[in-house]
# Entry
Amino acid sequence: MDTVKAALITCSVYQPVTGRALMALRAVGVKEYYIQSSRAVVLRRKSGFLGIGGGIGLEEEPADRIFLHVPASEGEIALRALTAACDLNVPGRGSAIWEDVDIVRSSAWEAHALMPIEKAADVDIQDGLGYLTCIVQHGRGNNIVSAILGLGVPMPLVTTGEGTGLRDKLGLIRVALPASKEVVHAIVSAHEVVEILNSVADAGRLDRIGSGFIYESPVRSGAINNMVIRGQRHSASIEQLIEAVDDLKGSTNWRKRALGGDGAVRERSYMHDLVNVTLICNEGFASDLVHAAMAAGAGGATIINLMHARTDEASSPVSAARQMTELIVKREAVEAIVEALTVAGAFEEATAGVISLRPVNLASTH
Amino acid sequence: MSKNRPLERVKISFGQALKMLGPYAWSKVVEQIKTVALIVCYLVLFQLLVLGLPVADAFVVALGIGLVVFGLAFFLEGLFLGLMPLGEACGVRLPQKTVLPVILIFAFILGLGATFAEPAIGVLRAAGSSVAAWEAPLLFLLLNKLSGQLVWAVGGGVGVAVLFGMLRFLYGWSLKPFIYILYAVSGGVSIWAFFDPNLLRITGLAWDCGAVTTGPVTVPLVLALGIGISRVASKSGKSDAGGGFGVVTLASAFPILAVMGLGIIHSDDVPNPMSDVEFCESDNREQAQNLFADAHALKGYVLRHGSPDAHLALFAGDPAALNAYILKLATNDEAKTAAFGNTKDFVRWLLTRASSEHRLLVYGSESQVHKEIAALAEGRAEPIKLADLLIQNGMGALQAIVPLSLFLILVLFLVLRERIQRIDEIILGVLFAVIGMSLFSLGIELGLSRLGREIGTNLPMSFKVVELNRHRQVIRNFDPSIVSDAITSEGEVTQYFHRKTSGGVYEPLPYDPQNYDSSSGQYSFTPIRGPLFSELLGILVVIGFGFMMGYGATLAEPALNALGTTVETITVGTFKKALLMQAVAVGVGVGIAFGVAKIVFDWPLIWMLVPPYTVLMVLTVISSEDFVNIGWDSAGVTTGPVTVPLVLAMGLGISGQVESIEGFGILALASVWPVLAVLVVGLGVTRRRKAEVEESARTAT
# Structure
């Protein structure tokens, strides 16, 4: 299987900041990107009225999840440019990460060199991060988000999609099973991954069949949003203090915390050595391609709608309306599944498919 | 394309299927019970506790409400399973596979077809049945003889609206300039119309046409179509033109201009408003004739609705000519049908509204007249034929849904050459939508409309004396010798008699010699009630009722439900459906309250539209594109199959009691205030979000 090394840059920002992110991409010479509407959830400290109704509650804000593939050597340029343009080192703006991926060579993707921008050299980028993805039934996303925020993990993002799998194997009775899913994304410290996975799996009862799926992928580096609680009254926010200590210590490794202190969190076993086969194609083709993958041995997947945009006026078979699906499979099954997708027409002009592969460190067993 | 093997099916047992279907169906029904409960409880409690009247045909009303709940559950599920995916699939594929002219032709046909399919215009026609030809001639003409042209004008307006809607998405045009231009022109024309006595009266109709066009089938379809096109046409990855919203706004605005245009074209064909006697005089005959199909229809109308002086004026003041005409009608079925529409209506008019002299002229003797009246009274109470109503509503639902669905399927299949994914779900969805619409239309007719009509007629008793016409009674073989005298404390002599009710109670009733017909031996009277409160308080009660009814009915609207769900999905839950629905419901309540005030105080509609629309224009300028699209669209979806019958019934009832010429305009007012409400909410939300992001930057520096 012929692949090309690339960098997957994912930038999650609050909607008022999106315009700056898109300008940064143009400035460095990015030709195309994807954008997905999402909601960012934070905790907000409410003062209440005359002391009644105060406390901390969840607050949802519209956000955008922008992602793009660039050549592996250009990953840092894109990441720094986004971090600088959106002031991502400031708590409460957003996050950006860089993941290493392999793109199947037949994909509808062109590699371009990027131009670094000057002020991006001074931004702070961290390593030792992981990317958590949790897929649950529609309406249960905030349960997962609450658990994540409760662990001090900032700016979880929620997107929506449509599940495939068992539902597609039923007849018309499938209408009684809701297809809509919520996908929760969060950036976590690599050394806390297992504890966070255990806590989130507990909160979402993910050990029940059909209740959801969670997995974690490695992140090469990133700039993360440290804000967990809004509406604080300290002269220096908690996030600023944490950032200052990060600077002194030179990394986030000092941030060990006692997880599961309020109650015993069950240890779980997770699957290892998996691969995330991500398929992006023109809208309307994803369902058939997922069926092809499932026939080749993949489990179910969630299909997500995306918007694709180009920064130039060049014509392209890639439609503005795209769909993405992530298939978590065993490493030895990757080739067969990519082959099945190819036979099913993933790389035909009408489909304009892009298949990328990235490692999955841990995934739940259901 | 794909060459995959079909997926291996998983077989489940009947029991397992029932276990899956049960909770699914129950959750849908419970959701609709919650949306309908408020308006039903409110109407029933108001009738019982405030007006102090029992709910007539309570069992039928309860059955109707049950049908509304089940019907809405089926209909909404059908929308999301079948109609909306069809619309979205068309929207995604059209720009990719066809050229611009094809897209525009498709859009125009869809808009036109949707108007003919949905029965909302028929509701306005029914509302117009109370308009007197001589009081508002142009309005009468458009609602009766030219009702076909009216529907075409409205349909054309909606077609043009959908066409421009698609152009907006394809080229990324903002909705704001369209709003400024359309409503400025509509407002300007309405202000100009204020100075023409005929055009003044159609202003309310024009604005109400704009409000009712976008019904529970059209809205989800154009929404889904717009979302599909918007996704494909986007250049920056973000929706530049509202993300698929905004077509409903245009479909509410273009028909206003179309109807005003139609009125202007025909304004020279009709006489000015005048009294019924002047209307019937020979000098005005030619123009009066233009309002009807022929001379017979004109005469029949005047006989039914005009005063005795008007009847005479129709025959140049010659009683013999009038008598001869009535005799001719009595003996000629063709003439009866030409004048009254059918023979039964002539008989009913003769026995209930005609003079005793004419009755005697036709039937020859008083005993024969008595017999005919008795026969009419027995035949009056017709049982409700449920099967007929179900068939009628079922046909209406089929007409509203199937042609549009077939059109979309054919376009996908033949023009776009697309394989329709999950065709089984789509067919099921269309079936659910048809069943649902049949049931809830029937339920509205049996339940909510019936309740609304009753309350609408009785509502004015809050502030004035009201005749309970539904409870009009006739005493046969009345003997005037039982009448006695009574005296008031001011020394005024009045007369009364006692009646023994079916419950064995003796009740005194006022006697009015004018209600006694010596030729038939009948005494007819209409019980009166009210005023329940002082005039000011009573008017406030009525206005408050209007607010609550608008609020409650809006929450039950299926199109608003569909819009709210779509908004919540598109914004990934950041703009909650409940928030949108509450903002819109409050806005509609305020609008209807103002509409009631308009009828009670006979304020010109233009006074009540210009101020809120002016504020709305300012808010539109300063609001974000997303909220402008959603806010203006929410106005277009509010006035639907639940709100319109209730509001019109209330409007007709009040206008009839306060002797207002027409009750139009409430729907137009119910459309402007929800936009204000949503834009205000949107401004607050947008500013807070921007402030927080900027605050975080300031904190860091």
Chain A touches chain B through 66 residues (CB under 8 Å). Residues 158 and 184 of chain A are 5 Å apart (CA to CA).
